[in-house]
Amino acid sequence: IAHAKKESDFNEVHKWLDKRIDCVFFDAGSQARQSASPEILLLVRKMINEISPTTLLFVGGGITEPNQAAKYQGVADCLSVGTYFEKNGVVNVELFLKAIRPLQKSL
């Protein structure tokens, strides 16, 4: 449901949240050309905050550069960036970590 558009998609998320699931994972797919829509994720984040605040929101697929992480700041709890490492190996890991650091919640 990375590119959810129909009301039924959100109804499905609502059902999961009512069950107090541990996490929701939006995945645009391995090596996706476009990552999950930040607007859709913001709507889901609001649903999580209202219905099941302990549920984590994971986002993956299509995040191929460190600067792409910024659009998920304050929305995603965790990013899956496998494509980045598949393409670049462990080189420039520090750049990616700096880019996603704002996603970390203060304890």
What labels describe this entry?
4 helices; alpha/beta; 3-stranded parallel β-sheet; 107 residues; elongated; 3 strands; 12% strand
The structural class is: alpha/beta
How would you classify the quaternary structure? single chain
Average of the residue pLDDT scores = 79
Global outline? elongated
Radius of gyration: 14 Å
Please characterize this protein's 3D structure.
- With 107 residues, the protein is an alpha/beta fold.
- 38% of the residues lie in helices and 12% in strands.
- The protein contains 4 helices and 3 strands; from the N terminus they run H-E-H-E-E-H-H.
- The protein has a 3-stranded parallel beta sheet, covered by helices on one side.
- Helix 2 links the parallel strand 1 and strand 2.
- Helix 1 packs parallel to helix 2.
- The termini are far apart.
Topology:
Layout (H helix, E strand, L loop, with lengths): L6 H12 L4 E5 L10 H14 L4 E5 L17 E3 L1 H7 L4 H8 L7
Parallel strand pairs: 1-2, 2-3
Summarize the structure.
With 107 residues, this protein is of the alpha/beta class. It has four helices and three strands.
